[in-house]
């Protein structure tokens, strides 16, 4: 059981790292940080296509990482 959790945790963590690195940056310098934050806060732009997929995959993989980590800590 522990070995399976270790393997799942490693696969999930590598996948999470890859998905985060594949995402594009949301701001372009200082001006993008100021105006981009306001646009995200107000929800003016929605992610479409591959950006939406990567965003959802990040959330799913991070939840899986958290669950596998808790399960592994519980069984050890």
Key features?
76 residues, mainly alpha, 3 helices
Q: What does this entry look like structurally?
A:
It is a single chain. By secondary structure, the chain is mostly helical. It has one domain. Helix content is 80%, strand content 0%. It has three helices and no strands. It has helices at 2-22, 29-42, 50-75.
Tell me the β content.
under 5%
Query: If you compute it from the alpha carbons, what radius of gyration comes out, rounded to the nearest whole angstrom?
Result: 16 Å
Gross geometry: elongated
- Order of secondary-structure elements: HHH
Number of domains: 1
Structural class: mainly alpha
Determine the number of helices (DSSP H or I, runs of at least 4 residues).
Answer: 3
Low-pLDDT regions = none
Most strands sheet? none
Secondary structure: helix percent: over 70%
Find the count of extended strands (DSSP E, 2+ residues): 0
Question: What is the arithmetic mean of pLDDT?
Answer: 83
List the helices and strands and how they pair.
Elements: H1 2-22, H2 29-42, H3 50-75
Helix pairs in contact: 1-3
Short summary of the structure?
With 76 residues, the protein is mostly helical. Helix content is 80%, strand content 0%. The protein has one domain (2-75).
């Amino acid at each position: 059981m522990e070995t399976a959790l270790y393997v799942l945790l490693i696969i999930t963590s590598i996948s999470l790292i890859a998905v985060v690195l594949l995402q594009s940056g949301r701001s372009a310098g200082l001006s993008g940080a100021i105006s981009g934050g306001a646009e995200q806060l107000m929800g003016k732009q929605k992610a479409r296509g591959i950006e939406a997929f990567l965003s959802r995959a990040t959330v799913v993989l991070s939840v899986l990482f958290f669950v596998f980590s808790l399960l592994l800590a519980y069984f050890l």
